[in-house]
Structure formats: structure tokens, C-alpha cells
Design goal:
mainly alpha, 2 domains, two-stranded antiparallel ribbon, globular, about 425 residues, 22 helices
Length: about 425
């Protein structure tokens, strides 16, 4: 086990960690995270517009009649998430280069807006279509933000800037310093959109279309689940690595599901990030809430009895680092097996349940610290079947964890009895 861990650390962990810490991927991750308050806020208005209550109730009828007005906060937040995210990506990438982050963020936002051609309405005048400001435009937002900041950096490094005298206030000096990069970037985007009339959003759709499709298939959801738990098994934060790469795709799924929900249409995607959060990572990575329940109900070891009481509350709210490092699960040859297997099983169950229409797909971003049944209920737009599925998945995790837990509990009891390591191993073989 130790040799294998060493191999993982040297051959696999290093390259994957370097990839997750890559400057542009980090900027994308931080840019997406910076928009989460707006996404969560807007998500709840989807629930308010279609409350999970009987249609005959007066409040449901009122919400249906006033859905257009109720959804305005959603359309100004989550529905245009790409606008917030492109600003965040530009800001964080420029900050990593020690450039003026505000100027870079503004430049990225302006460049992104130039990818969307306004249309003329006889009553309203020029109107900016909002479709590409949401999840549909997220990939373009990423590319444009990186392009804008890299041009800004190039101009800075080559001294292609306007230098102001020292007496000029710093804010004014920074504005003029970014003028030439603005001309280059916005000029290029204007040529692409206006002169050549090239729709970058349609082009990117064709390029990333296979990726979007593959990420929403059963193999496409099993791979990130396996990698997340696999890295955690060796003490490496799996989601920080996998999430950095996968989260932009998950955000696209969530945004498109939210748009379909708001329009009263079928939800197109099964596996946004909320799919994993509420139905797979129950209690945290590895679905460790099932393990904690085993400990609370069946532990005979004094250590495990006390440990279970200490970690029960954090686990209920999806905080399981105390379990992973305290039990421990890391490099534990007994517990690491169900830790990896159970999320794969839960992923298959949940994917098939969603595919067959037994539970609604997720379209709402609920705070991740909610207990899983509540979070799943909100994430699915108030589908009571989501609560049943979560409880079923918890039961499955308890059943699979139980024999491994009993084995580990027996080992801990023998250790507490003061037996030698050799005797413990012999007792374990004999099933004592």
C-alpha cells in the first residue's frame, strides 16, 4: 500500500496537481466561484416561480400568473452568469500576472459583450439578446477573458502602453496604461463580430459539442467520481483537482437546466454539479454519511464510539474531512475500498433514476452545507421523490460500508485490548 501510495504521489499526483494549479484553470475556477452568490440567489427564484405545492392552492396559482415578474431577479443574476464570470476570470488571471485586475476585468467584460451583436427593435431601439449571457455563453466567456488578459500582459511586457508623468494620479495612469490593450482587444473583437459577422458562440458550440455530450453520459459522470475519491484516498483533495477541470462544464449544464425550468420545458442535462453534490457526495466525498451511521449504530470500539459522536454533526452538513483524516480513510486498506466503490454505485443509481424520469434533474443551486435530503429537494425544484432517492442512496451506502466497518471495528477492539500487531493480524484472519 505504501509503495503504491508513493507511486501515486510521484507519477500521478504531481502532474494532476500541476494541472489543477495551472494559472488559467485556476482563474476559470475562481471566476466561476466568484459568481456563485448570484447563481444561488437566482436559483431560489426558480422555486418561488414554480412552488412545490399542489396546483389547486392559491399561492401556486398566484405564482404561475406572476412568474414573469418573479423571475426578474433570476434573469438578472443566474440567467446572465457569463457576464459575472468573465469579469471574475479576467480579474483573477490579471491578478496572477501582477497586472491591474480591475482594468483587465473590465476589458474582458467589454470584449465578451462584443461577441453578442445587438438587434434593432422598433419599440425599444437596440436590444442586447440575453441568451448568450447565460450558461450558453460560458465557454466563449472563458476564451475571451484569457485572450483579453494575455493581450494586456503582452502589451505590458513589451512596453506598448501610454506612460503618464509621475504627478498623474495612479487611477488615471492605470486607465491610460490600458488604453492600447483596449484598442487591440476590442478592435479584434469588433472585426470578428461586425466585419466578418462571425458568431463565436455558434462556432464554440460546434467545437465543444462532443465534450458537452460526453460529460452528460454515464461514463462521463463515472470518471470524475472515481478520480475524486481515488485522489482523496491518498490524502489529496480530489474535488480541488477534478472540479477545476470539470466545473465549467457542470455550470453550463446547470444554467441550461435552469433556463429550461424557467421556460417550463424539459430539462436537457442529467449531471450538473448539483447531481453529484446531493445524490452522490452525501455527507461529503465518499458518501461518508453512511459510514458515520454505521459507527453511531454498531461501533463496539471505544475510539469509534467517541469518534462517531464527534463527526456526526459535521457529516450531516457535508463536512467530512474529520472522517477522512481522523478515522482515517486515507491510506486505510480496509475503508478505502467502499470509499471508492460506493460513490460509483450511487452515481449509477441516480443517473438511471433521473434518465427514467423517476426523479427530476437538478436545476437549482442550493447551499452545499444543507443536509442532503433538503438540498436535493430544493435542487430538483421541489421534487419530493428526490428526498426518497437520497434516503435510498444513504441506505445503500450503509449496507456497503457495513462489512468493511465491522472489519475495521473488530481491528480497533483488538488494538484496544492490548494485543500485539501479529496477534491482531492472526485474529483478523480467524474472524475473531
Amino acid at each position: 500500500m505504501n509503495n503504491f501510495a508513493t507511486w501515486i504521489e510521484g507519477k500521478l499526483s504531481g502532474p494532476m496537481t500541476k494541472l489543477s494549479n495551472q494559472r488559467h484553470l485556476l482563474a476559470i475556477r475562481d471566476g466561476v466561484i466568484s459568481a456563485l452568490p448570484f447563481i444561488i440567489f437566482g436559483s431560489f427564484f426558480l422555486i418561488f416561480a414554480t412552488p412545490p405545492l399542489p396546483e389547486s392552492w392559491a399561492i401556486t396559482q398566484w405564482a404561475t400568473e406572476h412568474a414573469e415578474q418573479i423571475l426578474i431577479p433570476y434573469r438578472m443574476t443566474m440567467f446572465i452568469m457569463s457576464l459575472y464570470i468573465v469579469f471574475g476570470i479576467g480579474y483573477n488571471l490579471a491578478k496572477s500576472y501582477d497586472l491591474d485586475p480591475l482594468s483587465a476585468a473590465q476589458l474582458s467584460t467589454a470584449a465578451f459583450l462584443l461577441t453578442i451583436a445587438p438587434t434593432m427593435d422598433k419599440k425599444l431601439g437596440f436590444v442586447l439578446p440575453m441568451t448568450n449571457l447565460g450558461g450558453h455563453g460560458l465557454f466563449v466567456a472563458m476564451f475571451v477573458a484569457i485572450f483579453s488578459v494575455e493581450i494586456y500582459r503582452l502589451c505590458k511586457n513589451k512596453n506598448i502602453t501610454i506612460k503618464m508623468p509621475p504627478q498623474v494620479p495612479p487611477s488615471v495612469s492605470r486607465s491610460f496604461e490600458s488604453l492600447i490593450p483596449v484598442v487591440f482587444v476590442l478592435g479584434a473583437m469588433s472585426i470578428i463580430t461586425v466585419v466578418f459577422q462571425l458568431d463565436l458562440h455558434t462556432l464554440v458550440d460546434k467545437i465543444v459539442g462532443p465534450l458537452v455530450f460526453a460529460g452528460d453520459t454515464l461514463p462521463g459522470v463515472l470518471v470524475p467520481v472515481f478520480l475524486t475519491t481515488f485522489f482523496w484516498a491518498f490524502g489529496i483533495h480530489g474535488m480541488s483537482i477534478v472540479g477545476t477541470i470539470e466545473r465549467p462544464l457542470w455550470e453550463v449544464y446547470l444554467a441550461k437546466n435552469a433556463e429550461a425550468h424557467a421556460a417550463g420545458e424539459p430539462l436537457p442535462h442529467i449531471a450538473p454539479e448539483t447531481f453529484f453534490q446531493w445524490f452522490v457526495w452525501i455527507g461529503g466525498a465518499g458518501a461518508t454519511l453512511g459510514l458515520v451511521i454505521c459507527i453511531l449504530l454498531f461501533a463496539k470500539s471505544q475510539f469509534l464510539k467517541k469518534f462517531g459522536k464527534a463527526v456526526s454533526i459535521p457529516s450531516l452538513f457535508n463536512i467530512n474531512e474529520p472522517v477522512i483524516f481522523g478515522l482515517p480513510i486515507v491510506l486505510n486498506p480496509i475503508m478505502v475500498i467502499p470509499f471508492i466503490i460506493i460513490p460509483l454505485v450511487l452515481t449509477v443509481i441516480t443517473y438511471l433514476a433521473t434518465l427514467l424520469g423517476l426523479v427530476n434533474a437538478t436545476s437549482v443551486m442550493a447551499p452545499w452545507t444543507l443536509p442532503a435530503p433538503i438540498g436535493a429537494y430544493l435542487a430538483t425544484g421541489g421534487d419530493w421523490r428526490a428526498i426518497v432517492l437520497v434516503l435510498f442512496n444513504i441506505a445503500v451506502s450503509v449496507i456497503i460500508y457495513f462489512p468493511f466497518f465491522k472489519m475495521y471495528d473488530r481491528k480497533m477492539v483488538l488494538e484496544e485490548s492490548g494485543e500485539s500487531k501479529e496477534q491482531i493480524e492472526q485474529d483478523m484472519k480467524e474472524g475473531k
